[in-house]
Amino acid sequence: MELTVGLLGPLQIYLDGQPVRAPVGNRRRILALMLLDGGTVSRARLAAELWGREPPRSAPANLRTYLSGLRAWLAGRADLIRDGSGWRIAPAHGVRFTVDAIAFQAALAEGRRAVQAGDLARAGRYLRRALGHWRGTPLQDVSQGDLLAARAAVLAAERLAATEEYADVLIRRGEYEPARAMLHEFLGDHPHRERAWGQLMVACYRSGDLAGSLEAYRSARAALIAGYGVEPGAELAALHRAILRRELPAEAPRPTRYPPDPLPRRPRPRVPLRIVRRRETAASADGR
């Protein structure tokens, strides 16, 4: 039995592929915090999330009520166990918990290790898998105190970085068109990302679209001036000058690829019989 929890967007919970009604209110907040903390959370962290620095006098009683409600929701799937100064979610026998935020970070880490090892094919697979977990804003419909807001901000920042790292892998593998498509969509939502603008410029240039590369720089400059009142940074400006002078290498080193399947052998076309006879008649006439 598998309980799948989605936090990278609206809260979604499935049990063996079937939707499960999620807990509400502060029980939802506690569940999200516990899962993001690896299943265990201290009393101090729970209090900080729910009430900040000044919990009310009723906080201990309220917390017991929330935990009791969460325990009832988990019944048959997991137990809520007191663990030192906090609580731990212990899955029931035969039940496996899967959390998309944890799976995203694991795939991102694996992709980064593959990049460091120079295995761009493997890196691309894991980075694509990491990004595939996203459905929207993290913890989109979960009320957030300081702790959950901070975790959501970290996850959102990791998503931005993962997208640019995946684009970099695509460009290094010479897959310019997929990189361009992804970057156009990404920059529509995040026009302040100078690294992504630079990647789009490189992908356009190396795919033979000089005009598209220069247009990407103009769009980047306009977005940065309109949004923040600043010019592009030194790195992006230097890339623009290199493209104007055509000093950027036209292509990245091509990755090693499997050889293509051999083409099927085509049968030799048959010459119509009347043409053969004409040729034979002509040859006989020449030989007289």
Features:
single chain, 288 residues, Arc Repressor Mutant, subunit A, Serine Threonine Protein Phosphatase 5, Tetratricopeptide repeat, three-stranded antiparallel beta sheet, 58% helix
Description:
Among the domains are: 2-99, Arc Repressor Mutant, subunit A, CATH 1.10.10.10; 175-256, Tetratricopeptide repeat domain (Serine Threonine Protein Phosphatase 5, Tetratricopeptide repeat, Alpha Horseshoe). It is built from eleven helices and seven strands. The chain has helices spanning 25-36, 43-51, 59-74, 100-117, 120-131, 146-172, 176-189, 194-206, 210-228, 234-244, 273-287, and strands at residues 2-6, 12-15, 18-19, 40-42, 78-83, 86-91, 96-99. Strands 3-2-1-7 form a four-stranded mixed sheet. Strands 4-6-5 form a three-stranded antiparallel sheet. Strand 5 (78-83) and strand 6 (86-91) form a beta hairpin. Helix 5 (120-131) runs antiparallel to helix 6 and helix 8 runs parallel beside helix 10 (234-244). The longest helix is centred in the middle third of the chain and has 27 residues, at 146-172. It is elongated.
